[in-house]
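hey so u asked for the seq, here:
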Amino acid sequence: MFRALAFLFCCLFCVQVIHAQSSQQLLSPDGKLQFAFNLSEGGHLNYSVYYQEKPVILASGLGLNGWESGFVLSAVSSAEKDTLWKPVYGERSIVRDHYAEMVITLKQHNDESRKLQLQVRAYNEGIAFRYMLPEQAQGGRDVSIKSELTEFAMPEGTRAWFTSSAQGEYSLVPLKDWTAQAERPLLLEQPGGVYVCLAEAQMVNYSRMKFTLHPTKANTICATIYDIVDYFTPFSTPWRVVMAAKHPGDLLAGNDLLLNLNPPCAIENTAWIQPGKIIREVTLSMKGAKECIDFAVKRKLQYIHFDAGWYGYEYIAASDATKVNVDPRRNPNSDLNLQEVIRYANEKGIGVFLYVNQRALYQQLDELLPLYQKWGVKGIKFGFVEVGSHKWTTWLHEAVKKCAKYNLMVDIHDEYRPTGFSRTYPNLLTQEGVRGDEEMPDATSNTILPFTRLIAGAADHTICYYHRPELKPTLAQAPKGRIMKNRSGHQLALSVVLYSPLQFLYWYDKPEDAKDEPELEFFDNVPTVWDDTKVLDGEIARFITIARRKGEEWFVGTITNNDARQLKIPLKFLTPGRQYLASIYYDDDMSTVRTKVSIKRIKVNANTVLDAKLLPSGGQAIWIRPVM
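ran it, structure tokens below
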């Protein structure tokens, strides 16, 4: 019955026009969230958000520069929608889009040519709103937005999980004395045990938002945009999102909200978009490339990636990404023949991604894309992209659209964070914007990410595995800190905990570093996209357990912070009445395997509760298959 209903359009639409009222309310379908709008004295715009009848956003200002006050209510329309849609790939194979909506039309100084609309949606997962400047009957007009007046007033005692950069470290701080702007999503812990997440969706033709503290209003966070936005009507800003839950894991479980706030897929034929696992090739040589391809075949990876340097020094504008010209600092004696490598890879069923710095992309994009398609390249990793400004935001998303025309997938690296664009252009498989294994984070950092950065969407964490002195003797002389800090079980589990449709594995590793350790079967078999996802348990900065299903098989990842921990993992997500075989991969200092991982295999069912004894900086991965 579910399948039959899944793609039926179940949209109930009703419109009513309401005049001469200064306040409006909107409830989420389950009634737990409420958005309250109010016109205060002088025609100022204000709103509040309530969760389970308690305020999580106190009375806060709304507006844009030039659209601050003098408003009167012109009309209100309302609608409800409840549909199911099927993504090209995702954390689940069916997504529900269920909300109540109202559009509040306002006139400034009672002038018909000065209309501003506030579009509000109430989902069970959160509240979203955006500003719309409609086209007038006499035609469009220019828009120049220098700043937003959107505020988020918090209850006294609220604390924020703060980082100032997309790849920065998080810390829990009060709402005072911030020395920089806060990245989004911004997770907030409120008194009384409520968690609130402030986020941004559909930031495609605008200037990136970050968060600052109001200079005079205590406990008030302001939406601050990077720079001026010049466009024309009709025009809509990105969505401002307020999510609320009693458990931080529920925020992660509800992150399809950001996808729902973006338009449907714009690519007609998506068969060429194939998520998968990938290893990077760093020697830039024929020997290294073929060894990487053979390793990918052996270890059930789908792609290899040629990193920076294959077309010269990436920071020089003269470097030409249409030709192989290996940077001598990477390999002074390179014999790389890219065409032969791609031929060999395709023969083995392995695809090739190429790294290209934004300097070359900006200068050569229209030349590179048809050329790479001709070569048989499957995708591009955009490197060191400019982010934030209206100019570079629009350029970047237009570049992803152009890649789709040539059947090229994309991974955006460095400071870019997603806002749901992958729903519309799913050739954008993943992006960095995270303090991943390139930075050698500790385990505590990794237990913060699912509740903060991953709410925004996929994160390319560049998962390492062997980069420790006991596994690579040459690392004994490595600069302090440039080694992996976490145990092998932790690293295995990251491939489940941290969602990325294009999942880099063995970062900083080479094929010869692997010695056929038995636990590699987990990496071999773990998918990168899923039919279902369940956040089983977790506490920010302490631990998390996530279970994901592909077909009839489940993969479970648990990681702890820098401390040891004992947890119980109920398997009630399994189908009742069926028997399964669970392969459990766990850190074990007594293991005879050099990576110190042991494996146990046991029969389980939906009534089973597993005990997980996690070592400091450790983790556990589980592969569960039905017993035929």
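Residues 310 and 517 are 31 Å apart (CA to CA). The two ends are 26 Å apart (CA to CA).
lmk if thats what u needed
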